[in-house]
Amino acid sequence: MPAMSSVSPTASFASVAQARALHWAPAGSPVLDLPALQIPPGVSWVGGGEGRGKSSLLRCLAGDLRLPASHLQIGSAVLATAPAAYRAQLFWMDPRTTAHDPVPGAEFLARTATRYPGWNAALLADLSETLDLAPHLHKPLYMLSTGSKRKVWLAAALASGAALTLLDEPFAALDKRSIRCVLDLLREAASHPQRAWVVADYEAPAGVPLAQHIDLGD
Asked: Does the reported pTM lie above 0.85?
């Protein structure tokens, strides 16, 4: 059956990003069907059952999964005509990637910082302590546990200052203290007037006021 999708904003807003014609049907089986999507400031939750396209939607918004008829825009930057300007305003890291495995965590974070003018070094320092990353950042990423590697991605995402930050199952493999830390920061993010976070997960982030719910169906 085609994916049943709905978008429920909680208030009127000026969008941070927008997308049109997000239609994807690999092997003829529809996964995504979103004719239009506006992403407001604050935190949006992408919910849905297994295989309903939550990660695929984030990959589309990141430009990793290219759909020929789609239109993606952050501010005035359109992915099709200004890909560098589009990606400069976006943070996305596939939590399953092994592309950076040979790189020490500290070097990965230093490289990432150079890509984002709004990088928050003070926040990164706080996150390194709260997420218990400091003792591990000298190690190549392949030596880290799944949870520790995900913490590196999250620290980079939260410190990036990007206009649009995409988080795929951000609480998976995290300890309770780290989950509380991420939830606290998302609660703060919920009231940001100019930046947007899109969280894809089976359940809404607990206690986080949502700007929008994007329901991809069960």
From this structure: yes
